Amino acid sequence: MRSSAIVLLAGILAGCGPSATQKKLEQYFVDWLKNHGEKQVVVDSGGVGLAGNATRLKASIYGSKRHDGGHSVETEFRVKLPGGGEIVEFVAGMGDTHEAAIDDSLVNFTLSTYHVVYKCFLNDADPHQELKKLTIGGVERDVAFGDLFVRGGAGEKHNLGELQPAIEQAIAGLSLGDGPHWIKIVYGQANGEVIVVAATLDNGEENALTETVRQMNWPKSESFYMAKQFIVIK
Fold first, then answer.
1. pTM of the predicted model as reported, rounded to 2 decimal places
2. Structural domain for 60, as ranges
3. Which of the two ends of the chain, N or C, has the fewest CB atoms closer than 10 A to its terminal CB?
4. pLDDT tens string 14-33
5. Which of 60, 49, 63, 56 is nearest to 22 (CA)?
């Protein structure tokens, strides 16, 4: 009897179609592309993209939590690339409600990652994101550096942009193969102590780069701040 009930429930859920949250996340990609002048936005089984371009964007809620003072969510973003690779990024959001926390994670992705992905894989004519020539492992590559996205008032008091040359130098020392690569750097501090340092390369932990980021001249502060930068190497 129990197994029959499980089968019946699975059938009901399969027939329900996408949840309201899933539709919201899908519409976020659609609206953003249209607001950037794209006329041929497509939605298919692979996700959201542009006609004639194999890149597809998807997002889902990976986790959520209710706590004193509000809600937090972790949204999983996936970008399927034309060459077969896939960018996977987990982005946090916070808010008074579950919906507000989702919206906050979308703002996070928009300000730190979306323009980089758009320029490198969807519209290379986008004027909002620049590509910089950088010699990496002896080879000149085009690199898109996303804005250094900062949370916390302490971070806003300091010019974290001064760390950009050090970040570029660290990336120049990597050994990379042909094709696109992507890097995510996260640094956080609270009460004058480091709370998180992480650098990933192509979705995987990059220990040497993480240690280099740790040793950079991050400003000391008793208050909380967290910085994130997303980078694509073409």
1. 0.87
2. 18-122
3. N
4. 344 458 999 999 999 999 99
5. 60
